[in-house]
Design a protein that fits this description.
The protein has about 1550 residues and is α+β, with helices and mostly antiparallel strands. The chain contains 31 helices and 45 strands. The strands form 12 sheets. A 7-stranded antiparallel β-sheet has the order 27-26-30-29-28-25-31, with no helix packed on it. Strands 3, 6, 7, 8, 9 and 10 form a 6-stranded antiparallel β-sheet that branches. Strands 16-15-14-11-17 form a 5-stranded antiparallel β-sheet, covered by helices on one side. A hairpin with a 4-residue loop joins β7 and β8. α24 runs parallel beside α27. The longest helix has about 70 residues.
Length: about 1550
Amino acid sequence: ASMMSSAAEHGQMSEEEIASVEKVAQPAKIAIEVALRTIDQRGRAADGAMKDELEAMKAKASGFKKTVDAIAATLRKQREGLTAREMLQTAASMVEAAGESLKACQEAEMPFLKGIEILPAEESSSAIKESEAAAAKTERMVNDARTYLRSKLAEAKKYTKELATSVTEELTAHQTRLEATNKKLAAFKKETTERKTSAMLAEVVEAVTGTEKKVEVATKAAEIFTSDTLESVSIEDLKEAIEKTGAAEKEASSAMLEARKVYSTKQKEAKSQDAVAALGKLQGRINEVQAALAKTKRAAASGDKLIKGKEVLAEEDAKIKQVEDEVKKAVRKVKPDEEQAALGIESGKPSDEEVETMTTQLTRGQKTLKSSSRTVEAHIAGAPPTLKALLQKLADRCKAALAEIADVLSLTKDQRERVMSEAYVREATAKCKEVEAGMEKVDEAELPFIKGMEVLPLQEATSATKASEEAAAAVQSAIAAARTLIASKNLEVKQYGEAAAKSAGEEFAKLTERINAAASRIATFRKETESRKKTAMMQEAGVKMTNVEDEVKKLNEAAEPFTKEGEKEESDEAADKLVSQLKAAQEAIEQTKQFLSARHRDAQGNEAHKETLKELTKRMNEAQASVAKLKKIAAVYEAKFVARKVIAEAEEKLAAMDEEVKKAKEAAVPLIEEQGERFLVAASIRTLAQAWRDHMKAKELTHEALFAEVAKGADGITKEAFVALMERLPEALQREEIAFSEARREAMFKQIDADADGKISKDEFKAMFKQRFTVVKEITLTDSLDVAKGKAVAKLEGGEVLETFHGGQKEEARDMLRIECTVVDTGATGFVTMQGSSGTTFVELQSPLAGFISELNKTVDAALKFVQKTNTLFSNKMQELNAAGRDEVLKKASSELTKLKARVTTANSELQKLKSKIAEGKAELAKKEKKEANAHIEAKERKQADVILAPAAAKCEGVEACLAKLEEATKTLAALAKDEADAFATPLSVKLEVEKLMDELSKHFTVAKDIVQAAVADLPKGAEAQQGAMLLAKRELLRMSGKLEGLKKKAQRSVEAVRAKCQAIVDAKRPLVSNAMRAELLSKDLTIERYFLQLVRPGDDKISREAFTKHVEALPGVACQSEQIGLVCDSIEAGGIGRRRFQAFLQQYFKVVRGIAITDVFEVSTGKTLRKADADEIIELLEGPREDEKLGLKRIRGKSLLDGQTGWISLKGNQGTPFLQAVEKPYYACKAEVTMDKAFMSEGEAGVVRTLKKDEVLELLEGPKKINYEPGVRVKGKAIGDGAIGWFTAKDKNGVVFAEADSKYFSCVASVAITDDLDIKNCKVLRKLAVNELFTVEEGPIEEKDAGITRVKGKCVKDELIGWVTVKGNAGTKYAEPSSKHFCVLQDVPLTKLFPSAASGDEVRVLAKGEAMQVIEGPKQETFKPENRVMVKALSDGATGWITQSDKTCRPWTPFYKCKAASPMHKTLTVEGAEVVREVAVGEVLEMLEGPSEDGKVLRIKGKAEKDGEVGWVTVRDGDGKTLFVS
């Protein structure tokens, strides 16, 4: 038992061993206890020698007891260790089971990882159900394992310290693994929930995505409003953009509304937090789309604001310009010009008439300017800069004009106040006269009442009363107007100087007295009229009552045939007569009752009237009683009568309405159907007449003389002669405006030839010159052209019509336009002022079109009113039928009436459309008329504009020609279908030709753009540039600029189309080429470097397109045209393929960006899942990509660098979700010195390839692979040799053993001798070994069978004494045993001060192989975190091996280096004596071509500058370790 328990100190005993020891130890324990009790009993009675012997026996038994107790303690520890081992095995099993269950989760999610993003509903539901079940199972297992681990961690605290520590560490390691599993499970559950949510929310996602697309369309349509050239965009283009944006915005808003509806529905259905969270994300997308839509609306609103701003600019500019012209004329009249100023004249002296006109105009101008200023100011704030500047100029012009008006008014103050006060007095006097004239009419109206007849005949009394009331009302209105005028003018006059104010005030006072007197008289008259009116009304009541009685009498007569018994049934005519008369009688009664009721109020205070009313009321009651009796008879026939009457009246009204509508349509024919041609012809005739007037004036000809000249003595002008004359006339008269087309000339002849006899007579010729004017402002007709000398012939009021055959003449003295004319109504002849010196218009030319439109509008309005009345009649008739009862006849009539009413609605609609057409026709005709009137001016300006436009137009044509060539070149390839493009033989030639043509077009474009911009700069500035041909020229230039941009974009689209086709060819052929070349690489067992050198020409560093094409064509299985291979070559690297790009082409890599399944075959449906590729895994392309057209998937066959697993993987899902992302082959750069090992698991120094230096570049070959380390063993010990104390590694994390327990060390457990010989009988004792003294076994153990002992030859550690020692006596006593406190070093290992093996800077020394260490503490386990290991190849020497990847050891590397400090670029690797290519500036980027290579302590690379393509060697890190370039 002692030997077995001793062995337990070196390891864990089995259950059988523990039981075996317990079986031996337990009886021994009992026997010893019995022996001790027996000895105690005997000892109490013994004495002497017996007692001494018993004491010795007791001591020996006590020693045995201690040994047995020690064995029991050891057994308890072993039992504890056994329990712990079983518990750890259970824990490991549970954690492992949870991990295995997690694999089932991964299997369940595989349907989602094949690239089909939206699975069929049934398959999706099944996969989600399986995923949830697998997750639930795994979660239960994780929870069970977690609970078990927690409980066992608590139990472990009760173990012995050393066991508790080791068990806790191992359980903690299991916990870490379990939590890693749980973390993956949580991620899986989250993805499952997301998939479940996605399936549920697919409809919402689709709606939101659709909305996003529509908003994108709206945003694109609104791009013009955020462009830098917005201000130069024409109003038409802006309006078009607003229309497009509005339409797109409407669609987007509709889609948004629909998306929100779907969202709202799903929101109600969503129960889980995950669904709510997913909806929250969708809400975020909806909000983003809403914000984008709002932004688009704001942009469109800014465009609308810009349009309004531009329109305001044009409108207000015209108004302000008109006022400015008036102000200038006024200024000329009151201020001296340069000549007058030179003569010392300080101010002008306008006439009183001119001052009055000027004041009126300037006051009106002030109002216009203030209004314009407010309008302009309102649009300045939100206007773009250029428009804001123009609007600001308008505002400044307003202020300047207002200041000039104030100046003019100031200069004419005294005269103006006098003239205006006199004018106001005249105006007030006129108003007073109107009052007095009204009083005269009042006197005339009163005459019938003051002739002496107290009671007039009713008709005469009513007529006289009405005339009196009208006259009184007119006077009252005139009094109010006069008082208002006097009050307002009096206030204004009070602001004038004393003289003007006093004179006017006195006159106003006199006029006020006259008006007050009239007011007093009219008040009296109105009272008398009211009394007379009441008397007349009482007379009328009597007449009305008599009329009622007559109607009742007629009713009795009509009812008589129906009251006789036994008579046959009367006819419908008689029945209608009865009902009709009943209604007439009822109507008369109702009207008279109302009239009598009103008279009761009038009769208050007049007894005679009261008596009369009493008598009339009595008669009314009798009439009503009589009608009530007859009503019962008529009621039988009333329904039929009402029905027939209503329908007849409705049809009659409809017939009249149709006539009105027809009349309106016929009236509109000249404008709508004929498109106003007759008015355009009339305008042309007026233009011709004006040209002839000017000719007559210049040649002093009369109309007769001109006719004779034109007709060449004949009595008329034929059509042929007129047309021929009109062809020559523009040149003869030097009047471009009368250059009409032949068709127009013929139309003019036809209109002038009024009697249509085929020739223009003298009267018809003269009629061409006749014009009519309408007086728009009161003016005087004088007998001569000179206003000052002429005498007044008549005063003309507004609205009077004037007729003339003459043209306007200018009175130079007063700068007024006058005309000789005849007043149509009176025949008076003389001269009138057409336009005053200050611009006031007194007469306006009557336009045939304006007159026509006015009459047409009246006709249409009358028709509309008639339709409205008809509609009202129908409504009334419907009410009448409803009121008449619910008889079947009435219902039928009501239905008929409803049908007839539809014609009213139709008529109203037709008239409304006609009105719209008239408005459109009028606007269009006005445009045509204006265009024709300005045609000669525009033609002249157009010539000037053409001079500016011609060079730009020519260059634009050049660009168009280039585009035509380019489009012709692209046609052969761009229009091909996919299969046709795949078979196209010369895509490279087309691409090169197209790019050459594009370069040529770009040059032409640049030149044309510069010329257009120069032409815009050369355009006139100011007002001239804002109208006419110059404005059109500006717009044309802007259009050209836009067109050029459009042509360039079109060219770019054509080029892009060719590039896209070429890219499609490349996409199709590149995999074929790369697969074929990879196959050759593998079959010939070539390295990429050797393969590259086979293809590159000696001395070159790039593979030419020709060499590449020739080589690929020779490869088997490459179904490609020669030029298609050339395209592939250019796609790899233009201008030749370098080493790095060649390697990247043959070794293509992808990074997993989203977990995806690796399957064994290409077909998803039949493929078996090999495993799941996790995010960040690197996949090397082996084959593909290939497209599964049915599922819409692109897949590749690849090899994972993680574990070498090969299989098929989807690049993208069928909804576009990326699973793999193309990446450059991964490279690393060392951040410090790194050990490269031969094997994946480090094997110590023996397994080291070499130490990598800082900044060395490494190519990834395999990995990263995660490595989980087993715990290492650390021991604290004392070196036997020199007593050095520290910690050393007995076994490292890779399982490499550095030291182990040394079985050759023995420790004495009892005192024993060391002898000089093996033979116990013949040996000599050298000395005694004490308990715990150590010695090393040199030989043995050897058992001496004769003596029954076991001996070893040993060397004492204490004094190196060598001899033989008995380790086991012949009675089984153990004297020495192997020591558990000593280790032997198997290979060199550091001795450190601290426990962690990774601690640096604490090394005591290195323990050499063979050294012995005495254990002070431990052995103890040391745990390690997992690490990533990668297999790499050093670019510098091709060394291959494994390194640990971490932030401390390496970093990702790219071949692009950025300069941190200015450095020279040399031609050679060696710095010393190297020729400098150029200096590389800070921030420049170089692409590495070779290296990194060392030149002494300097690290160098050969690179190509991105800036200019220069190639040379640069220093990455100098000899002092300073970094000059970083990748």
